[in-house]
Known about the structure:
- By secondary structure, the chain is mostly helical.
- The protein has one domain.
- It is about 80% helix and about 0% strand.
- It starts with 11 loop residues before the first helix and ends with a helix.
- The model has no long low-confidence stretch (mean pLDDT about 85).
Amino acid sequence: MENKNDFSKGSVTGNILRLAGPMTLAQLINLLYNIIDRMYIGHLPENSTTALTGLGLTFPIIAMVTAFSNLFSTGGAPLFSIARGGGDEERAEKLMGTSFTMLVVSGLVLTVLGLFFKKPILYLFGASDDTFPYADQYLSIYLLGSVFVMVSLGMNSFINAQGFARKGMLTVLIGAILNIVLDPIFIFVFHMGVRGAAIATVISQGVSALWVLKVLAGKKAIIPLRIRSLGVRWKMLKEIMALGTSGFVMAVTNSGVQVVCNATLHQFGGDIYVGVMTVLNSIREVVTMPVSGVTNAAQPVLGYNYGANEYGRVRQGIRFMSVLCIVYTTLLWIILMIFPEFFIHIFNSEAQLLELGVPALYVYFFGFFMMSLQFSGQSAFVALGRSRNAVFFSIFRKVIIVIPLTLLLPRIPALGVMGVFLAEPISNFIGGAACFGTMMHTVWREMKRKEQGNGNE
């Protein structure tokens, strides 16, 4: 099993694809937790658009839960891969134990804070008296499962880092299937509406968390999660948080962008445009999953080879990851431009939302392929432990570009509310080019230099 998951052997492309298939499917399935909720809620017999808009208002808070999961998973898992590649299994086990402990603790803290401050936060995020009840119903129940989310999302990275991509896929497949089955039962059979969607999600995430613990604590784990490895090792935690800050900042800034977008859209266009953004965000989450799957699959392969001093293989991995992502996003951009109504209909079929959503989609997804450069550059930085670069470009795209443009562009008379949607493609062009260009100038050149140095030894 150890030899099978030695990423310094065999084809780099093959290793990435072996992980990417199951990981992409797993992430796509993971989206079903919330996507299925939106699909059912968006087609309720009454008040479907208002209910869907209320659900959309909870996204920034849900993104914060994901942010803390990223802090300890995208920080711990790459360091775990580097340690495993270097043959230091004791360090790898302690990194995993520290990450698990912090995921549980932060999940409990987020539950308490979220329940206490939910009302003022939701109104601050753009809720109205019409949409707040739906947002409150969903969030009050969802937050009770925060620990389940943290464990299932966060610790699944350590399953993938050991090369068990299929078992990682099962983590979310089990939960997603449960959610698909339970959603219509709670929503329609028991007539619980939005509350029913939240209950189904929490139950599903709880079962996924149990599966993760079973795999990591099982006999087949290369480096198992043991009780002795639990607890906080402060020096390791500092390393984990330094590297994980990139993933954390990405999720936090996504949350911040959603808050600013919803508030601005509510100000310039009303609840209906908040509903349009909810639908577009849902589409974006679905179509970017393959990109996220490939780049996340590349990270343990890149990190392992970097730890094993196989710098040429690191460059091969970066090249393959980048080309594949660019080709995919270019094709998806063309498809979105040709069939916009099809994608919107998945989440809502009301005539007004469709009428406003199509032109917004054309603007929002313009130049979609540039987004892949941000993903590729960011993943290379994270995989090799370059936390400062990863954090900077997380902040640069969202905080420095998207948020200011979201606030300023709608005030231009010729743009109005459409300015909010225009901020996204502008950030993709500027942020993507800057991130990828910097990665090529630094990481790529360094790997080439070290590869040549190894050849001269």
